[in-house]
Structure formats: structure tokens, C-alpha cells
Design brief:
The protein is mainly alpha-helical and about 325 residues long. It has two domains: about 5-150; about 165-320, no CATH class. It has helices at about 5-25, 30-45, 50-65, 75-90, 105-110, 110-120, 130-135, 140-150, 165-180, 190-200, 210-225, 230-250, 265-275, 280-290, 295-300, 305-320. Bound molecules: zinc ion (ZN) (2 copies).
């Protein structure tokens, strides 16, 4: 049996990495092996021609790695390999105006596996908005390595553009899938997963409060339209208690705004707004890449607006 070349092995793994990125926690044992192999290959060849592919392999592992403990072997191996790749390549000579790692990462992640397939095969047409050589540039590889570092240990590479933390992305995808009527395989009990919105609001710190109110409001709208069984009754009580606590904490007497924009009436868009506003990193991403349908950050964070949203949701829950 002939040993496959590392290049053939890296190409072969793209499908598995893509599956790991989409399924996140379906098959942790397989994903752990994939991450460790990828990290070892990158650490052994951090300046080599395949460094870009191994680094992007770790990027595709980030959704899965957000479910892991920082002391797990694969988590540490991924971080150490990314740090080594960054140090080896970040100061390489380069004439590019910019690099793909500086773009909106949340939008790019879903295309990453296709970009890797295109990079691996000169015969495929190149359709990405950034040139091929900017993807392969050592500084881009170093940039994505820092994205991996920043995701795994926030603060370790804070010069990369902001992105929603993957743990919040995981919750956002779980709730969005429920609201769209197609729960993910990780959802065993819809009411249980929805109750996360109530418990997160119930324990929210001051700077998380706006985001958690909007997440809970989106869930309340969904429950109002969908839920009428006894599980929903318990959920309604939990949500109502969490809104009452939030209203008690919010001061809405000193608002400078003449009007406030509405939250998007689409439940999943309102959920998206809330999940981004619930963390400093999410808020930075929200402000850096504003969505046309989302209210501007400063008015969305206004406590009068947040309090009004909480009171409205509470009223609707009590009359539903
Ligand atoms: Zn470059
Ligand atoms: Zn205001």
C-alpha cells in the first residue's frame, strides 16, 4: 500500500471538515481525531505549501471546538498549532492590499470548504471576491491562525476582526432551526431548548441585558404563535419571571431619542440581533458589519427601548 501524500490527505479531509463545521457535535470522537491530525500536520509544516489548508481545517473545526473544554487535548493542540503558524508567517513579505481573514467571518464560514476545494485544484474556476494568491499568502494564513487563537482563547489575538463567539453561534443556530420548524438533531426537547432564553435572561449581567431581552422576546413571540401545551405554560412562566427581573433593572427615564426603530418583526432576525448584542465581541461584529434590517447599535442598546420591549413581551405573554 502506498502512503497518500500530505496534499492528497488534506484534500481528502475537506469533506470531513465541512461536515464537522455543520454538524458541530454529532460525532465528537471522529471530530477529535480530525482536529488532532490537522493540528499535528500544521505544527509540523507551519511554513509549508499546505499550511493554508491545515489552518483553514482548524477554522472549520471552530464550531465543534466551542463545545469542548479548554483543557481537552484537541483544544490545546489546535491552539498551539495556530500560534506556531501565526509566528512563522505573520511577518512574511506581502504586497496585498488586504486579505480574506479581514472580511466578515460569519458570512465566509459557510463558503470556506468550497474555497478550499478551489484552492486545491488549479483546474477549477476561481469565483471568490478575493484573489487566489491573497488566500494563499502567508499573512492570510497567519491571520486565520489568529482567528483560531482568538476564538479559542479570547484576547490572545484581538487584532483580528470581531466575530460572534462560536458558543453563541451554536445557541443561535439551535434556536433559529426550532423557529424555522426544522429543529437540529441536537434538540431532544424543544421547550427545554427554548427555556435557555429565559434562564440566560434571568442571570444576565448588565451589559448582556439588552441582547438577552431581545432573544427572550423573539422566543416569546414564537411561543405566542406556536405553543399551547403544558410544556409551553411552564416556559411562559419562566420567560415572564425573567422579563420582570429585567424591567426592574432597566432605567428608562433618561432617553435622548425622539423615536426608536423597531426590532425586526421576523422572529429569527430579532433573535439574531439579540444574540449579537449579548456579548462585547458580538456587539463589535454587529457594528462592524451592520445588517440593513437591524436597528443601529446605539438605539438598540437604549435602556428605554429595551425596557419597552420587555414590557411589551410580558404583556403579550400574560394575555396569550
Ligand atoms: Zn499578502
Ligand atoms: Zn432611547
Amino acid at each position: 500500500m502506498t502512503e497518500r501524500s500530505p496534499a492528497a490527505r488534506a484534500d481528502e479531509l475537506i469533506d470531513a471538515w465541512e461536515e464537522m463545521s455543520e454538524h458541530v457535535d454529532d460525532d465528537p470522537q471522529t471530530y477529535e481525531r480530525l482536529v488532532i491530525e490537522c493540528a499535528h500536520e500544521l505544527a509540523a509544516d507551519r511554513r509549508g505549501p499546505l499550511a493554508c489548508r491545515w489552518t483553514l481545517g482548524l477554522v472549520l473545526a471552530l464550531p465543534y471546538l466551542s463545545t469542548r473544554n479548554p483543557r481537552d487535548d484537541d483544544f490545546e493542540a489546535a491552539f498551539d498549532a495556530a500560534r506556531a503558524a501565526d509566528r512563522a508567517q505573520r511577518d512574511a513579505p506581502c504586497t496585498h492590499q488586504g486579505h480574506p481573514f479581514q472580511d466578515n467571518f460569519e458570512g465566509e464560514l459557510g463558503n470556506m470548504a468550497d474555497v478550499m476545494r478551489d484552492l486545491a485544484d488549479d483546474g477549477r474556476s476561481w469565483t471568490n471576491s478575493r484573489p487566489r494568491d491573497a488566500w494563499l499568502c502567508p499573512r492570510n494564513v497567519a491571520g486565520y491562525a489568529r482567528v483560531v487563537m482568538e476564538s479559542l482563547r479570547p484576547g490572545s489575538a484581538s487584532d483580528v476582526p470581531p466575530f460572534l463567539p462560536f458558543r453563541d453561534r451554536y445557541d443561535l443556530e439551535t434556536l433559529t432551526a426550532i423557529m424555522e420548524g426544522y429543529p437540529l438533531s441536537r434538540t431532544y426537547d424543544v421547550a427545554w431548548d427554548l427555556s435557555f432564553a429565559a434562564s440566560a435572561l434571568q442571570s444576565a449581567a448588565d451589559d448582556e441585558l439588552a441582547g438577552r431581552v431581545f432573544v427572550a422576546a423573539a422566543v416569546a413571540w414564537y411561543v405566542e404563535s406556536e405553543g399551547d401545551d403544558s410544556d409551553a405554560r411552564e416556559l411562559v412562566d419562566e420567560l415572564a419571571a425573567a422579563f420582570e427581573r429585567a424591567i426592574g433593572l432597566l432605567h428608562d427615564d433618561a432617553c435622548p431619542h425622539a423615536t426608536h426603530p423597531d426590532l425586526p418583526s421576523d422572529t429569527t432576525q430579532a433573535l439574531w440581533v439579540g444574540m449579537h448584542l449579548a456579548s462585547a465581541r458580538g456587539r463589535a461584529a454587529y457594528e462592524t458589519w451592520p445588517e440593513p434590517w437591524a436597528p443601529p447599535l446605539h438605539t438598540a442598546l437604549c435602556s428605554a427601548f429595551v425596557a419597552a420591549t420587555a414590557r411589551d413581551s410580558l404583556t403579550r405573554l400574560r394575555t396569550s
